[in-house]
Amino acid sequence: MDISEIPIINDTDKAIDFPLADEGVEQELRKHGAPIRIEGEDADARRERLRNILEPSNHTFDDINEEQSGEDEDKDLEDDEIFYTPGDAKLYDARVEILHDSMKRSSQRIHKLKERAKEQDFTRVLKNRRHINSKLASYSLYGSQFIPGITRAISSIRFSKRSDLIACGSWDGSINILDSSSLNDKYKSGPGFHTEKVSALDWNFATEENSLVSGGNEGTINFWRLNQEEDKKLSPTESIKDAHNMRITKTLFHPRGNYIISTSFDQTWKLWDTNTSTCLLQQEGHSKEVFSGSIHPDGSLFASGGLDGMCYIWDLRSGRFIADLRKHVKGIYSVDWSPNGYHLATASGDCSVKIWDLRRIDRTNEELFSIPAHSKLVSEVRFFHRRESNDALTKDVALDSNGSFLVTSSYDGLINVWSADNWIKVNTLRGHNDKVMACDISGDGTWIASSGWDRSVKLWGI
């Protein structure tokens, strides 16, 4: 053997310089036309896939960059190659079910939008918008309640389907169900079901039963069902222990009601089957903690927001990654879809709320509008999702108030109400003595509930 044929360890002429950071790996995969993320793939597997792509050619990253320096910059933004990977049969069945259900929902939503557009004229629409804004400007404090026994901040709050109940989750691990008309305590969780902070709550709107799901910092997901004949001390009907190995930040019911999605500080979100309490999908993608999420009204898409300042949109029907929205300079703490199906709001630690239009998502992914919403971190953003048949906000029966406004809460102690027509603030609600951590809107739009650091629940009415 000739001496030139003896392999040299760390030969700089033949070695390939691989990036250590996952973000660098994703950039190089994009340059080579390979899919950035594959379902179920972690950072190590992604790096190994890049190695397999580059090893046949003895180029360094500097060589590759020099070769591509003269190419059009748009080349880096080309669509990723479609990549199919085998999945579990249960996940496949779930995707098919979600596909069929979302097609029905989207068809109904689009039909309503078309019918409403036929009946409208500019003058009627303008008068109705002014009427709605005048209603929103009349929000004022209706009641305030310090819930007995709660010792720490109330971090999450949600109206039930019929808006007759309000669920509250506290950092002391307790869950309280209040009567929305009086703010009196009706139900309370028993001790020990969440041993750490309750950071996530959501009601199941797919059923007439009052059922909800909660997530805690200890990593447990609990399912609850209210029964008027039973004791007021609640016990979960089902628990998923160690659902995540770190803090759970959101638990969300899918519109069908038989699936939930959870987000976590372990930088993943998971899709669960509520009938079997099994995890169907664990999805990575964020480089920091996943703090927020929202499921599209049709049930077809999921938007995840992370403390990396990124909002990712995922297709639940195919598992594909659709878009990355990266205009926030700090972490995203709340995400919500509008009932119209194409507007998405993201709330951030940079004190802004950005509005995105799904119809305008392209290679640049520019936001539709940026609202300088508060002077401190925006803790939650909520569009008005009308659930009541009687529209209490509009004076024209042919015009729907659904999605006509959104509400934001902030660590500056304020709740702001915004028009969804021009994104202008129409009201500011003052009453909390400290950070406001959560807010929600009733099904008819006449009530806003808020909770925060001062351990109080406040109800605002028109």
Automatic annotation (TrEMBL):
<dbReference type="GO" id="GO:0017070">
    <property type="term" value="F:U6 snRNA binding"/>
</dbReference>
<feature type="repeat" description="WD">
    <location>
        <begin position="429"/>
        <end position="462"/>
    </location>
</feature>
<feature type="repeat" description="WD">
    <location>
        <begin position="325"/>
        <end position="366"/>
    </location>
</feature>
<keyword id="KW-0853">WD repeat</keyword>
<feature type="repeat" description="WD">
    <location>
        <begin position="241"/>
        <end position="282"/>
    </location>
</feature>
<dbReference type="Pfam" id="PF00400">
    <property type="entry name" value="WD40"/>
</dbReference>
<dbReference type="GO" id="GO:0030621">
    <property type="term" value="F:U4 snRNA binding"/>
</dbReference>
<feature type="domain" description="Pre-mRNA processing factor 4 (PRP4)-like">
    <location>
        <begin position="20"/>
        <end position="74"/>
    </location>
</feature>
<dbReference type="InterPro" id="IPR019775">
    <property type="entry name" value="WD40_repeat_CS"/>
</dbReference>
<feature type="region of interest" description="Disordered">
    <location>
        <begin position="58"/>
        <end position="77"/>
    </location>
</feature>
<feature type="repeat" description="WD">
    <location>
        <begin position="283"/>
        <end position="324"/>
    </location>
</feature>
<protein>
    <recommendedName>
        <fullName>Pre-mRNA processing factor 4 (PRP4)-like domain-containing protein</fullName>
    </recommendedName>
</protein>
<feature type="repeat" description="WD">
    <location>
        <begin position="387"/>
        <end position="428"/>
    </location>
</feature>
<feature type="repeat" description="WD">
    <location>
        <begin position="194"/>
        <end position="234"/>
    </location>
</feature>
<dbReference type="GO" id="GO:0000398">
    <property type="term" value="P:mRNA splicing, via spliceosome"/>
</dbReference>
<dbReference type="InterPro" id="IPR014906">
    <property type="entry name" value="PRP4-like"/>
</dbReference>
<feature type="compositionally biased region" description="Acidic residues">
    <location>
        <begin position="63"/>
        <end position="77"/>
    </location>
</feature>
<dbReference type="InterPro" id="IPR001680">
    <property type="entry name" value="WD40_rpt"/>
</dbReference>
<dbReference type="GO" id="GO:0046540">
    <property type="term" value="C:U4/U6 x U5 tri-snRNP complex"/>
</dbReference>
